[in-house]
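Notes from hallway chat w/ T.B., transcribed later so I don't forget. T.B. wanted the structure written out for a chain they're using in a teaching module, and asked if we could keep both sequence and structure tokens in one place. Agreed to drop them here.
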Amino acid sequence: MVLVLNHPIKSNKKPKKKHFSFKYFIPYIPLIILIIIVSIITYYRVLIQIEVGPLSDSCDFLLNALVFAGQGVGYYDWTRPPLFPFIISIFSRLGFVSTATIFIVDGLTFIFGVIGFFLFLKLRFNNIESFLGGLLFATFPTVLTFLSVGFSDLTSVTFTIWALYFLILAVKKDSKFFILVFPLVMMAFLTRYNTALIIFPIILYILINKDEIKNFKNILIGIFASLLILIPVLTFFYEKFGNILYPFIATLSTTITSSSPSLEYYYNPNLLYFIERFPIHTGFESISILFIILLGFLIYLFIKLKRESIDKKKLIRGWNVKKTSSKLKLILFLALILTFVGTFGQVNYMITEAIFFVLIFLFYDITKYFNIKFMDMYILVFAWYMVFFIFSSIFIIKTDRYFVLMAPPVSYFLILGLREISNKLPFKFKKKNITFPILAVILTFIMLASTAAFLPVIKNESNNYKFSNEQVTLASEWFTTYDPNYKNKIIYSDLWPYFAWSLKTNVKMMPIFKNNQTYAGGSVNTTFSAQDSIAFNNYLVQNNADYYFCIQQINLTSYKQIKQFGNLIIYKKI
């Protein structure tokens, strides 16, 4: 008898190797192209800023970074949020003590933010739509203007984008992502304090999706992780000021002040500032952008309500069951709208934020019977826009750069509008709607052409800053030779952060005296009377100033002019 064993038959043939297939990379092509385009734009923007030189805020961050790196020069401004200069300090420790460092880091964090925004858009849109939305955000004129100038605004936006991206993942996929959400919110806050307002949309999104969250424990873990980031900052503030809340209080005191002569240069009580300047912030096609946003959103609601997203019987049944309750909600909703509009700009912005919070939550509660898909995400993005719009509109100090906090949600709703219009007016090729891809190609070329034309404009409009930096450099080079012992002298300047950075010493802020008022942030009118000159002179004498670097001609009786570079004059105590 022959015993046959069922051994596997060995083959001399070698197993086939899995060959690389390009198709695996196809889904990533839009993101890769977006990264390449934005990186090129950022590269040229950095080169422009290196040629122009730093701005006042950039110098403050650079000097704070030196303190964090253990290389402080005696000057610092701890009213500035600490995280951005702390990041810069890492490179300072490595020997990269240069203005170029802050421009490059600003640019790199921006690219990281655009990547995050693409992924955020992908939660709702396809690759092409997300690509266009990311490019829109990256090429808004105001975003380009403040890209890589060494401010913390875009870095805070980056942390905010990633926080909201992980927020949606935490609710829709895995609550463990909450462990990342709150530390990122804390990082955004420590990069720019008013970014803390993003906590309102986050709380709102959690409340309206509370039934979907599987493990609330991860929210507590995330909050605890964010506190671990905050504790070293508070400890640092305590060591510097003896008060862990000093910088926050100093910033808060500015934001709640109804009028402030110390910030007269940027004083603007116009509540419609960001509405009126919307076309400037978003580009020449902004009128069509606003039209598309409104029209697209209305078309979207109309389609969903008419076709597939609403169970009419369920809606009627739901409203009939709680008819009295529904009427009360509608009355309260209308009352809140009137209250919001009537008190806008008349009360503290935090009260307006609270009214809006209740208003938008009530809106969701009223419309939830319609079962509109992605409504919770739309509300999140709309609240994202509104919390910063409310703050920036009511806050008496206004600059165009505040718009960058609102830029991502504006881009989001533009893409939503384009998408729904494309679906409403399909142009089919081989049974596929190619309306949006055609629009995407056209708009991409328009945005790239606009960007290529706008970058030289930024350079030309920055000539005044370039000239000022050149004057500061020339004056500093001359002064170090004139008085080699200058670091032991008391120096005041109208351009104190510039000279503190250039001279690597403590240069004190010189306030502006005008008509018995003191302006710590500069004055619009720089024509000074004899009485104003006396006030300047007395202040310098009282503070034992040895030198005064001045950018306007002033008659000082206790000081003499020793050198002039353009409109920059150096005064020395007699």
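Follow-up for T.B.: The first strand starts at residue 428 and ends at 429. Might be a good example for the class.
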